[in-house]
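Colleagues,

Please find the record for the two-part complex below.
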Amino acid sequence: DAKTTQPPSMDCAEGRAANLPCNHSTISGNEYVYWYRQIHSQGPQYIIHGLKNNETNEMASLIITEDRKSSTLILPHATLRDTAVYYCIVRVAGRPGTASKLTFGTGTRLQVTL
Amino acid sequence: GAVVSQHPSWVICKSGTSVKIECRSLDFQATTMFWYRQFPKQSLMLMATSNEGSKATYEQGVEKDKFLINHASLTLSTLTVTSAHPEDSSFYICSAGTPTDTQYFGPGTRLTVL
């Protein structure tokens, strides 16, 4: 699976948009970009994933560049509860009926402040 | 999103005893479940992948005789830490893969070995 590079930490004011970048310059054509977050002392929480197109759900938006070498996770209105470590993970989809493993890097520690 | 539970959420045991951790997918069937370990201030490290009805696949460096994994049904996987020692103290997290290959994580189990 392709490696990812994320800034170690970021700050964001509450109510503002949090834009978390991820570089995955060696991504292959069949690899998806997944985002998870981990709030302190909890299991990771799935946020969103995409292959080529931009994606949006109730939690966030995922913007993938046209060359797919980088992406940005956008939390449109950050709250204090969004303070967490955010992981960008690139991986190939599993065979039908199975799931493929996730390899976690060090992620970005997002601190949302008042 | 899909819900995964773990039990117990925390456990304290004496050195030399065995501890069993359960992981359940509550609202979906998971052909594949994964077990991770996380030490303080570190990222998640995959320990093993378990497919229902077959033997688990362990990552390099993980002792299969020490960390016994059973995946007897599509909604339950168990991890047994045998002859636990203080260095096994960690945060153990399971995840379950949905048919669409998205992994959902349990809340984690904090193990402390005295």
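Strands of chain A lie at 9-13, 18-23, 31-38, 45-50, 55-56, 61-64, 70-75, 84-92, 108-113.

Comments are welcome before we finalize the supplementary table.
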